[in-house]
Design a protein that fits this description.
heterodimer, A: Rossmann fold, six-stranded mixed beta sheet, five-stranded antiparallel beta sheet, 10 helices, about 30% helix, B: alpha/beta, abc type-2 transporter like fold, 2 domains, 14 helices
Chain lengths: ~325, ~375
Amino acid sequence: MLAIEVKNIAKNYSSEKSGKFIGLGKPFSDNDTRVDSDTGIEGISFEVKKGEIFGIIGPDGAGKTTLFRILTTLLLPDQGSARVNGFDVVSEYKSIRNCVGYMPGRFSLYQDLTVEENLNFFATVFNTTIEENYELIKDIYQQIEPFKNRRAGKLSGGMKQKLALSCALIHKPDVLFLDEPTTGVDPVSRKEFWGMLKKLKDQGITILVSTPYMDEASLCDRIALIQNGQFLKIDTPKDIISQYKNKLWAVKSDTMYKLLNDLRANELTKNCFAFGDKHHVSMDNDKLTMDKLREELGTLGHKNLDIREIEPTIEDCFMQLSQV
Amino acid sequence: MKQLLSFVQKEFHHILRDKTTMMILLLMPIIQIILFGFAITTEVKNTQVAVLAPTNDEATQRITDKINASAYFDVVDRIHNTNEILPIFRDAKAKLVVVFEDHFAEKLRHTGTAHIQLIADATDPNAATSFSFYANNIIMDYQKELMAQKTNPYQIRPEIKMLYNPQMLGAFNFVPGVLGMIMILICAMMTSISIVREKEKGTMEILLVSPMKPIYIILSKITPYFVLSCVNFATIMLLSVYVLKVPIAGSFLSLVAVSLLYIFVSLSLGLLVSTLTDSQQAAMLISGMGLMIPVMLLSGMIFPIENMPVPLQWVSNIIPAKWYISAVKTIMIKGLGISAVLKEVSVLILMSLVLIGISLKKFKIRLE
């Protein structure tokens, strides 16, 4: 059985029917003859296998939270259907609410209750006790246990996330929904957090996680790249990278802004983006070699040129896919 | 059941840890009762009076003494010239000037008619009406004394008896009013705010994605404020009986029963507000402006409903406080039993059923 099964789901927040589409899904363009659909909206579809860490990767406003809220039965989709753990998100919402754990994007525990009181409260709400499932949260909870009498509002960002994760896990859910769990968390805590997710996966828990950080994508089993309410691609991180169409060069010179403009002006350039202190550029390699590019840029007055071929990252893939 | 208990416990934690709000909630009824009881009073007491008697004779002296002796008035000044009247009001030395005509006693004796003019500062019209009425009574009283000496075959003597509140104490009116207002404020406003806070802070999202039944969420939100309202009810009762000396003339049990019913109506109102709003500010505004002000203005607490324009009288019928205040007055002041307030009780029951029905139906099991 699939842990999550989503078919053609869409959700429009725009108040007027004729207004601009905002939300999840995408309207078919006028000359699109692929499918005849009643709504004229192309929804999203995907499946998550049991025990998988499935990542939804995309920028802010791409529709990640909407998708999570539909799957956690908090929002009704305009069209399409979805099943979580075999239950329909609309008609069997009560069963879903019994068997999933949900950690919303912003810290949503009671700030004026202590760490222990929060955990206790959520344990009782889910008809269980801390003792019953202590094994599952032990690794995470042990790190915040020294502060168990501290009010949740007074915890640091990373500790808040750990507490929220503990609360979402306390009833041993079958499917765990984590909406941007690492946003606003320091790099060390982020790394730790992903370590914990791996351990939870080993216990058989299916995890659907969203993140705007591309570097976290490679830690998932499979990922979906999402933009403007649409999935660009669903695959394993490895396959997505291997499908990168061109060679990727990192280019550097003394005048980086001029370099970016010059590279973009080149008619053989497919795409070029600033990545930290380098520009990542992919070009029509049949017609242009690295030496030839170096020569061309040299005549444009660039000094200290440094061009080398690099392995594309998920971010490069995202940029390339989102361009099409 | 354990879920519910734990939820209620959590709500008490919220309330007990927010010390400022809790103090406000517990002190507000005390402060209001004391303010209304001692500071903001419409009773006429020790009104300053100035007397203008051009001829000081035994009649003017007698009337002046009678006025001075009454608890309502203090004679603070005696003037001798009509030119001095206006400056007295301008400098706010007195609220009432009693003007006798020349040779007052003489005219009274010979012609049987003498004139007194009462000039009142009517910037506060209600007070002016009251104290000029009292002054008039004192003068009539003196007239009666005179009549007793002569024999007059035609006499009409109205005997006025102030039923239920012979001393005309304002407390008899505002204790029910404050009760009605405090309950609405605490039950409706605090309940709606505490539910909306869960929405605003995002915790409602987690609660919804849990096996917790919506009715449990509602019940556990209501319980602490129900307890708090009962505490407030007890405080107000104790204060009004022991400090303001307003007795509970009727059955205390009926009073408690009607109050519990009213608390329930207010809680359902709070629930309804919480289903209509998504932010604490909106909830506060709706309960504050939308409930408090109508309660104060249209419930008969401050302004008599009978004096309002007819459309406003209709509107006042949908204000729960109007029915509650009327019931409390009947039981507490008039001393009648629950059978005398059947109409009020049935209206309140009907209101609570409608309100709780709508709010349960409108309670969102999702985010939209």
